[in-house]
Amino acid sequence: MKIVVMCGGLSPERNVSITSSALICRALRKMGHQAVIVDMFFGLEDYAGDPADLFENLPEIPDVSVGHEAPDLDEIKASRKWKSRSMIGQGVLELCQAADLVFIGMHGTCGEDGRIQATLDLLGVPYTGSGYLGSAIAMDKDLTKRVAATFGVRTPAWETVSYDVDEIPAIVERTKVPCVVKPVDSGSSIGVSIANTKEELEKALYDSRKFSRVVLEQYVKGREIDVAVLDGVALPSIEIIPKVGFYDYKNKYQAGAAEEVCPSKIDPEIERELRAMALTVHNALGLSVYSRSDYIVDENNDVYFIEMNTLPGMTPTSLMPQEAAAAGVDYDTLCRTIVEVSLRQRG
Question: Fewest C-beta in 10 Å: which of 92, 127, 211, 342?
Fold first, then answer.
């Protein structure tokens, strides 16, 4: 098949996306597919030929590491040659229309929030993962928690705020600490902080002014555990144990920064509860093909749902490939399954 692996975009997670997509593209080529990787934002600005010809003369797959810090998006914008306000680069949609499938290797805004899914729907191009509506809801932490709570899923207490600087003192006054401060629609723990004191909360709110909305979430101390869903089946859970601090951007993507135990060494009953909860939230949000959800299990073995990821990372240190491996599904087979299930639903 002719497959476009779409990555990059204008998201703080673009480097994670490119790293994931490079591995996905290699796996697809190993299976015999004509796979072409394209950055959604930059597109084909250095290519003057017919986009369809790229499937016959496969370009080199980029080698990009994630790095310790998220990229500077202003710098990324300035480096594009095509000075357009479009989030989609030149030739991207033409390339997608020449393909049999688009494997969405995006993370965060631009790729995981439903907008590119809706675009491909309008073009009539099949793609991997969930549809536009489920993606949009799952990207919004506030909406996701509202839906999950409606289905009886336990989630930490939260408040979602939009504010000006002069409103920060009042928010600090009414908010209990410790709490987690995070943007409502970002991933990879970008912009997330744990405020243990009122002073730390004030600083976190000041630093978060660049985000349109911010979630203030009850801090639940416990074990960090994730559960992936693949083709309607919850995979073995994985426990994340950061060596320093919490599971932030650096600890997520730097090898050795966190210990990851899969399957998790937890009580079988808690494992069953986690998997059932993962399927409940996945289905409640109207997701399809695959997802990964995050949980905290506290000292009383109470399970708290935190958030949902509709396009889990596929880097060497990412959690979903490890969970799939624990279920006997290697990386190449994982990519093949995502392709086959997506085509079954949209082909």
Answer: 211
